[in-house]
Amino acid sequence: MTTAIRPAPAPAHDVRREPRTRREWVTLAVGVLVLVALCLVAGRWQWNRYVEREEQIAAIEANYTADAVPLTDVLPGPGAVLDPDDVWRPVTVDGRYEPDATVLLRNRPVGSQAGFHVLVPLVVDEPGSPGLVVVVNRGFVPLGTDASSPDVVPAPPEGVVEVTMTLRADEPPSDRDAPPGQVQAISTAQVLAAAGVEDAAWATGATVGAYGALRSEDPAPATALRTLPPPDTDPGSHLSYAFQWGVFAAGAVLGFLLLVRRDRRDAQGDEHGPVSVGDLLAAQAAASDESAGPTGAGGNRPRRDTRTRRPSAEEEEDALIDAQLR
Known about the structure:
Number of strands: 8
Number of helices: 6
Oligomer: single chain
Shape: elongated
Strand content: 15-25%
Helix content: 25-40%
């Protein structure tokens, strides 16, 4: 006669997580505050970019399609600086190009095509003119065979030319190196220096704080350059990015509050105290027996004794998952 060895009862496992300590809560709170601060800073930066872009678009829409006015109405004399309200304003002026002072602007693609912008100083030649020199961006030429310069740079018209151009503010000087006769920014002083004419008699004391983007020339040149495209009025994605950063900040705060709520709920527990895996398995077995209904001659299905078998690892895992989902 063999004696059945009764398996040891399944150990009780508390399916609830231990409450977080004060130190853990402080660490979480600091992390959330840092995350929210970073989101707000990024959102504010995107908002400022959006506001600046809207101001640029407003200036383009107000000035670019306006009627052209004489250059001296906007830039009355040497040393004059373009007012921000006059950026993109079209002007007309009569003058003579200085083709020997032609300079190329590099690293400024047009329509995703690499090439160079052709910059030529224009000396104003009008009765009663105060003697002005304006750098004119005459247009675009593609890269040459060696990509370091264009194959051909068409010459500007000779003699007095009536030029219609769009005024732009002088760009800040660039500190990047460029080959001889080329520049990295449309800064009047750098353009004249690259051409080696900054001390020329016609240029000394006659420049202004602006340059012109060519629209038309009369008479027309023998070979025209590629026309510069109209200004871009796409507002970009700055506003949507600012909104997204705000949503991220709100989500961080909401997630922290939900975590606090869940931790408090787990700390309170339920009225029955900790739940063990053995209790869960016994309850599941009893529910299964009751749902099966009466069987056999006695009308009752014999209950399965859950104490005669140790729960398997799979049953313990299923019981834990069921308890956490309740």
